[in-house]
Sequence to fold (392 residues):
Amino acid sequence: MPRKQLPPGFEPGTSVSARPQKGPGWEPVQTPEGPAWVRRHTQEERMYTELSIKGLFKVLEAPTDIGEEKALSLVQEMLDERHFGLLLDETGMVETPDGEILCILLKDRLRQDLMDAVRPVVREAANYAVAGANRGDSAGTGMVPRENKGGTPSNMTGVPPLAQLSDEAYQRLKPAKHGTFGYNARDLRGGELYPCRLTKYDAAEAEELALMSELAAEVAEAFRHSFAQQRWEAQFEKAAQTPMAFVLKTPKGYTPFTTITCNNTWRTAGHIDKNDLKEGFGVLCCLGDFEGCDLVFPRYKTAVRYREGDILLANVHEVHGNSPLLNPDGSVPKLDHEPERLVCVFYYEEDMYRCEDTPEKDREAVNKRKPGDPMYSRKSSKKSKKAAKAGS
Fold:
C-alpha cells in the first residue's frame, strides 16, 4: 500500500497513508498535500525501528567509575561540566564500566498535544516552594530545625527559608518549586504518622488525573519495551500487589507507577532519590524551552541532555543532579527571569503495597493504631500472574 513522505509539521514516529486505513490508531487528517490517514507509532514500534536502523541507537560506556564513596561525597554539591566527560544527547544508552545500565535516552517519544495538555497540570502540581520544604539534599542546603510560630525550634527539620540562604542558594532556590501528583505511602513527620493518601495536590480534577495517567501510561510503555525491561517487570509486579486505589491507571490498564514528582525551574544538587522502589528505575520527561540543566551522574562522569518530548530512563539510586539552568540562547538567566523547566519523575513509592484497600480504610487503620504497633499491619496481597497480566 503506498505511503507518503511525512508532510511538514508532522512528528517523527508517524505513518501517513494516501488511502483509508483499517486498524487502531489511524485517523483522517488534512495535510498540505491533501487528505491523508495518519497513525502515530507505538512505543514498541519506535523501539523496534530505532534498533533496526544501524547507528540510530547508540550504546556507550561511561568513561570511568570514581567509586561510590567519592560519589556520595558530592551529595548536596552543585554539579557542572567538571563532573562529566561524556554527554548523551541522542537516542541511546550508557552502561557503567561493569555493564549495568546507567541511563537510556529516547528522543522525540511524546506527542506534542499531550505535552501541551499536561503542561498546566504539572505547573499547578509543582506549586510548593523548595525553600523551607523537606528535600535538603536536592536543595543543596541540608536540613535545619524549623521554628514554631513563637520562634522556638520545633522537632521537625527542613530546607532553610529564603531569608536564611546564602546569595548563591537564594538565587537558585527562589524560583524553585516542587510537588507530587498521585499517591504517597505512610510516613512519620514530627512524630505523627500520616496514612497512605493522595499527594499534596489533592485538588486534582478527574480530567487532570486522566491526563497525567495517560502520560504515565505512555512513558511506562517506553520503559516496558526498553533495555530496562527487567526493571519494568519488577516494578509492575510490585504494582500488581498494590491496592489499585493507589496506582496510576487509565481505562486501558494499570501503570507501574504510584507517584509523579513534579519540579519547576529547579536545578537540583547532587542527591539520591529516596522512597522509590530499589528494584525499579527512574522514568523522567520534561517540558519547556531552555538550555543547560543536563542530568549529571558524577560517579561515572556522565551527563544526559533531555528536552521536551524525550523520555529518560535513569538509575536514580546513583548520585545525580543538574548542571546550571540557562536561557534558550545559552545565556545565564537573571533572578526572577528564569526560563520555565517542568520535570516529571515517575516512580513506584516503596511500601505502597502495604496500604489498606482505599485511602479511607488506611486512615481508619492509622487512627486505630496503638503506641508500639508497627507502621503497617497489612501484608502484600499477592495477585495472580493472570490478574497482573490483565492489568497491563
Residues 223 and 232 are 6 Å apart (CA to CA). The longest strand covers residues 177-184.
